[in-house]
Amino acid sequence: MSRRAGIRTGFLMAAGLLLATSPLATSLLAQGTAPAAGGARPVQAQTAQSQPTQVQPAQVQQAQPAQIQANQSAQTSPAAPRPTRFVVVLDAAHGGDDSGAQLDNAVAEKTVTLALSVQLRSLLAARGFAVVTTRESNVSIDSDARAQVANHVPAAACISLHASMIGSGVHVFVSSLGPTTPTRFLAWKTAQSAYVTRSLRLASTVNSALQHSSDSGSGAIPVLLARTSLAGVDSMACPAVAVEVAPIRDTDRTITTAVTDTGYQTQIAQALAAALLEWRTELLGDGPGSGGAVRQP
Ligand SMILES: [Zn+2]
C-alpha cells in the first residue's frame, strides 16, 4: 500500500509538529502491517493465570499464531469476569542488529529505548506494578514476538518505546486499525482493533501526564498524538500505545533538549509512570494492591 495509506492523523490535539512522515510511522509501514489474510495457524491462547515478571525473547519467539483468544477484560459480556492482575508490558523497540534511528551524539535509538524501558520499569516496580519487558538487553526481537509477550500476560497496558530525531517532543501513536466489537478469537494481525478504543483512552492519559510533567519544574514537553499502522502493536490484545521521544526544539527548529539528555528521559519516564498510575486507578479503583482484578472499563 502507499506509504501514507495507514496513517491517520486526525486524532486529538497536538501541541507539537504533525508528523505524517515520522520515522516510526514510516519504518513500521515499511514492514507491511496491513491486515493480511494469512493462512490459519493453530493458536494456543494464553490466559491470565501466570504472570512472569520478565519474559526472555527465547521464550516468546515460537509460535506465530493467526488468532489469539481475547483478553477477558475486553469482552463486553459482564458474565463471570476472570480476575486479571494489572500487568504493564514495556516494549523497548529495536535491539540487536536493528539499531533503529541514529540519534544525537551518535547514540542508536535501540540504546535510548532500552534506557527508557529500564528506567520506567524501575519507577513502576517501586509503585507496586507487575512489569513485563520484551527485552532487557541489546537483543533482536521481531514484532510478532513483542506482541506475543503482551498477549501472553495478558497486559493491562503496553507501552512501546521509540526515539527519533524528527519533530519536537513526544509523539504518542495509537494503531490506525478501526475499532471492532471484541470477539472470543481475534485475528493476529488485527487483534488491536478490539482494543483500539481503550488504547485511545490510554493515549489521552499519557498525553495528560506529559502535559503536566512540567509541574515538576522542567519545561513543558510538546506532545503529538497520532494514529498509524504499528507492527507489533497491531497484534496486541490489550490497550497499547507507541511513545516516540524526539528532541525538544525551539521555534527556529534548533534543538534545545537532546533525546539523549538524561534529565529529559527521566521526565518522560516519570510522566509515563504517572500515566500508568492513573490508568491503574481507572481500572482498579485504587492503587496499592496491584494484584486486584481488572474491572470492565
Ligand atoms: Zn523506532
Description:
The chain has helices at 23-30, 57-60, 109-126, 143-152, 196-212, 262-284, and strands spanning 67-69, 87-92, 130-133, 157-163, 170-175, 185-187, 223-228, 240-245, 248-249, 255-257. The two termini are 35 Å apart. The protein is α/β, with parallel strands linked by helices and 297 residues long. 27% of the residues lie in helices and 15% in strands. A six-stranded mixed sheet has the order 3-2-4-8-5-7, sandwiched between helices. The chain has a two-stranded antiparallel sheet with strand order 1-6. The protein has one domain (54-284): Zn-dependent exopeptidases (Aminopeptidase), CATH 3.40.630. A hairpin with a 5-residue loop joins strand 9 and strand 10. The protein has six helices and ten strands; from the N terminus they run ααββαβαβββαββββα. Residues 1-21, 25-64, 72-83 and 287-297 have low confidence and may be disordered. Helix 3 crosses helix 6 and helix 5 packs across helix 6. It binds zinc ion.
